Fold this sequence. Notes:
By secondary structure, the protein is mostly helical. It has one helix and no strands. The chain has one helix at residues 3-86. The radius of gyration is 37 Å and the shape is rod-shaped. It starts with a helix and ends with a helix.
Amino acid sequence: MSEQAIHDLDKKHAVLDERMNTKHAEYKTDIATLAGKIDAAMESTSSKIETAMERTKAEMAHRDKQMLLAIFGMIALAVTLLTFLVK
Length: 87
């Protein structure tokens, strides 16, 4: 193999090595960007889930209160009716 051929191969190798390093740096940047976007999306989703859970708990507490009031109302009505029937 001639010195010129070896020199050409060295040049090609250097070009390919530089391209590989450039692509590697681009991929690392892309991965870091995607990781940041994933973290932000997960944080947003987690916040939305927590808000929905708090709202659901508040609605459940309100419904429980309404049911207790309805039960107490029925008991009061039953006691009143029984009082009139017993007299």
